[in-house]
Amino acid sequence: MSLFKTRPVHLAVLAALVALPAAAETNQTAPEKSAEALPEVSVSATQADDKGEYLAPVSTVGGKVPTAVRDIPQTVTVINRAILDAQGSATLADALRNVPGITIGGAEGGQIGTNINLRGFSARTDIYLDGMRDRGQYYRDTYYLDAVEVLKGPSSMLFGRGSTGGVVNQVRKQPILGEIKEATVTMGTDGYYRTTADYNHQISDTAAFRLNLMAQDTSTTRDVMENQDFGIAPSLRFGIGTPTEVKLSALLQRNHDMPDYGIPSVNGKPANVSYDNYYGLTNDRTNQDASIFNAAIKHAFNDSITLRNQTQYGHYITDARETYTGRIGTLNAGTGAFTSISSTAITNGNVTTTPTSGLSVLMLSHDRKIDDRSLNNQTDLVAKFDTGFIKHTMIVGAEIGHDEYTNQAYNRKNAALTGSATALVNAVAVVSLEDPDAFSTPVGTIRTQGNRAESSANTLAAYFNDTLEFNKQWKAIVGLRWDQFRAETSNSINKTNTAGNTALAAASQNVEFTSVRSGLIYQPTDAQSYYMSYGTSFNPSLEALTLTTGQQDIAPEKSRSYEVGSKWDLLDGSLSLTSAIFRIEKTNARSLVSTGVYQNDGNVRVDGFEAGLTGRITSKWQVMAGYTYLDSEILKASALDNTEGNKLANTPRNTVLLWTTYNLTPEWEIGGGATHLSSVYASNTNVVEANGYTRYDATAAYHQPKYDLRLNVLNLTDKDYIASVIPSDGGRSVPGIGRTALATFTYRF
User: Fold this and answer.
1) CB distance 285 to 256 below 8 Å
2) How many CB atoms lie within 10 A of CB 219?
3) Secondary structure element (H or E) that encloses residue 516, with its range
4) CA torsion, points 9, 203, 207, 199, in degrees to nearest 10?
5) Which end of the chain is more exposed for a tag (fewer CB within 10 A), N or C?
6) Can you tell me the distance from the alpha carbon of 369 to that of 408, in angstroms, rounded to the nearest whole number?
7) Which of 457, 517, 400 is nearest to 151 (CA)?
8) How many Å separate Cα 575 from the centre of its chain?
9) Beta carbons within 8 Å of 717's beta carbon, 6+ residues apart
């Protein structure tokens, strides 16, 4: 029986959140003043009085409380609001392109979820919102965010299951004491229209209300692609500056997007066709409703002891009608019959001697309705105390959570198509590879119900983390976490669990795991910090709750990380320079030993080096730059996997990122940047490779007290490049956008 009986009552909650500030208008409010002038203490990564600064010296992601980045014995990257605004970043994926070590993976349909690889390992389920797991697959915007924080390296001690390569934390804008009334309109080439609003109102001496809005109708240089999205993010905060603080927030978002599965591969490379080509139907769509509600309370008993509790409920609904590139082959002009290349040719990267002009693509359906719900509660007791000469900051906490996931698949088939019966399963249309036609679902296409997958999971955890300060120079961090993860999943197909079938009727598991974290920090001066750290993580086989193949109750994958690094504060603290060398090793990776059967006998390792530079070089010149080197290798895999000795999918050897701006005058600002990634493989088989690329962007802005004007030009040289890869169907590649100009006008009322 489902734990959740009803859908969230969006309008009722929203009405309550909006009505409360109105009811409080009778309270005496402070005179209107700029937010940055107030001595507001925020738990976000950036402070109000640091507006416009790229350097964020404090992060919440490395220790569950606001912590100086120099006191976190792992690599931390913070993309704050100043960088997001300067680059015109509208999506979480845009923001994460500033983080060396992260590569964007092709999400399902290009829109369902933000799929990322972090230091070579998937982090799709390792995305958080204000420190709470944000597990749903949905389009993530930035209009309600103050910053994006990335903690790199296994972090199960802090966050539980997953987090092999690290975690991504979205930091929401929160109500502050003061007034903000700001509206932004962006118009761009290729039919790009977007507007956002940020309204903050102080309703008493200790309370405030904030409302963020977004609406957009956007197209890109890709043919047919068009998205319409709307979002609202209200929040209330009481007790600001008092011992007891309460915060209520919501995120309500509606997306109506075109799916984009990219282009197929031919002979181990993305097909040599126009990167503007769209392979799908014009009436395809991915409709999503994301609803996230959060309630948090914090009470400080005194300067040394603080108790916090946070509850988050997430409900994600997806209704997708999507068509994607399946097999490639040839079309008989006389009979109209489609002949697919062989399964062996597909496995080897769609190998064929037929020229591109003679190839056709079979379009397959991938329709489903997804209902995904999560309820999580987290309690932390933060205590500061001394034992002799040692100062402690200890966090003791517990977490409990429940997840439910349902995926009802649907199949579309066009009975008018002729050719191989195997190839034509779920086939909708055949289009030219070189010049695909744009049309809606063909007449006569029949839709039938497919597999229904139902999954649920319960999480229970207890943990502690202690930061020990021995003296001004030496600190140590030790942490321990126990997790229990119980999950079960079932499929409507294959009820008898036929031997050898790749889709099991049901699977369940009960995993208990203890994660550790340790670090040693040496800070000889206030400007230098050197550290070494060790951490572990675990990945249960049913972690994602979304798989319908190969689901088994086998031991969780275990990972461990070693990192040695340094952090320097230069130019009186206005510029931060970081570096680190690290090794992440998954010691018992899942490996396919027979059809639908996996064992924990694989071994995967990533060795790497990372360096970063963020802050002000001069009072007028800001920079954010980073470099990551990743040497990945599958050390051991089964013969059936056939991946031993290969590189990990979507893991470039070299990543170079640069963004810089310069203030010519107090009003005029110019800048730009470059992104370089080495080539990547679409899957661990290493048969489909997307070439590396370098993309250049530029910006110019004019600032006034009441308004800002900004021009961003993305992909300045109109470079053809592959932005993300998808491993299925011989390997697909999603092209990045062509040259795009965005003009943004921001007005402060």
Assistant:
1) yes
2) 17
3) strand 506-522
4) 60
5) N
6) 5
7) 517
8) 27
9) 695, 696, 739
Q: Which amino acid is at 648?
A: L
Give the separation between CA 6 and CA 12, rounded to whole angstroms: 14
Residue owning tokens 């068509």: 323
DSSP annotation of 347: H
Residue 572 near residue 527 (C-beta atoms within 8 A) = no
Per-residue pLDDT tens digits for 131-145:
999 988 888 999 999
User: Which residues make Cβ contacts (< 8 Å) with residue 659, sequence separation at least 6?
Assistant: 83, 86, 87, 98, 623, 624, 625, 671, 672, 673, 697
Distance, in Å, from the CA atom of 208 to the CA atom of 376, rounded to the nearest integer, reads 25
Beta bridge partners of 250: 293
3-state secondary structure of 81: helix
Q: pLDDT of 201-253, one tens digit each?
A: 999 999 999 999 999 999 888 888 889 999 999 999 999 999 999 999 999 99
The single residue listed with the structure tokens 């207890």 is 462
Q: How many CB atoms lie within 10 A of CB 342?
A: 12
**With the CA atoms of 209, 245, 391 and 513 taken in that order, what torsion angle do they form, in degrees rounded to the nearest 10?**
-90
Residues 6+ apart with CB under 8 A from 738: 220, 221, 275, 276, 715, 718, 720
Strand stretches in 332-444, DSSP E = 337-340, 360-365, 367-387, 390-414, 418-419, 427-432
